[in-house]
Specification:
- This protein has helices spanning 6-19, 31-44, 54-60, 65-79, 99-108, 124-138, 169-179, 204-216, 233-241, 251-267, 269-272, 296-299, 301-323, and strands spanning 23-27, 48-52, 87-94, 114-117, 144-149, 154-156, 159-161, 183-186, 223-225, 244-249.
- It is of the alpha/beta class and 332 residues long.
- It has an eight-stranded parallel barrel, surrounded by ten helices. It has a two-stranded antiparallel sheet with strand order 6-7.
- It is elongated.
Amino acid sequence: MPYLGGTELAQVYRRAQGERFALVASNFAEPNTLLGVLAAHEEMQSDLLVQVTMGAVKYAGSGKPLAGLRALARYVQAAAGEAKIGVFVNLDHVTPDGVDAFIRPALAEGLCSSVMIDASALPFADNVHATRAVVELAHPYGVLVEGELGVIKGVEDHISSDDAFYTDPDQALEFVRETGVDLLAISVGTEHGVSVGHELVLRPDLAQAIRDRLRAASVPRPLVLHGASGLSADQIRTLVEAGVCKVNKDTTYQYVYAQTAARFFGKNEREILPPPGVTFDPITFDAGGGTWRPNKKLFDPRVVGKQIQDAIRAVAAEVIAQAGSGGRSIYG
């Protein structure tokens, strides 16, 4: 299916709210992660929402954010062009200072389905002001806006916090009313980065209270869970049941990527790296006059890349099952 926009994405979230499942939002910065999660979503018949951060687009554009954003967004459009599922791109954790450089051109060029403005580090009134400005900017383009209220502990891209501050249900209602956001990211005890689920103090009751507070005021919104890596299947399902409709995954895929590559190169080190004491020239392929040669069947990056894709596909399929979105594509 062709790349889709905010109108179709809103349909997915409405269904998620009604049927109690969550859309898995997967961050990526290069092709192997994308192709792995795409394969999983096609296999599971679950709509694909991929996310890019400022750090990701800077990496993909060799320090040029807009070039990287164009490259990643258009790669998604091309790679998923024939997929029989909905395909969406979200701009993740854009801080207020990145609106002009990041969000405006993305909207003008049709590079995203939704944007997440993260002004959660600001005082409440300033967060409201910054978030409402992005809503007013994005909605004419038919692009959804995700805001964040509360602070999630840990590091995500270039944003970090040493402490967590839970989201207050009454303040959440005021925030939604004042900003008009389409989705609300809440803090209920998860952490960005490497965290162990059973060590966290999760508050699914708080997520449910926020959901119920918004519903009672006739402004229901899909709730978003950041920092979901490390959570168990039961923890994910409990939070989805409490009202979470979008589950973000990044650190999990980063680790699976690194683990797969480390194991591959560790196993094949002797056929890729010259023996101790041998100087190898990668331009002339000369091993100091010796007979050692690297094995091209192993050092070709596509070999380890395919293994990385397969490993990420397997993990992504399990995450989709936990979120309950399998078999629920907009085209299903």
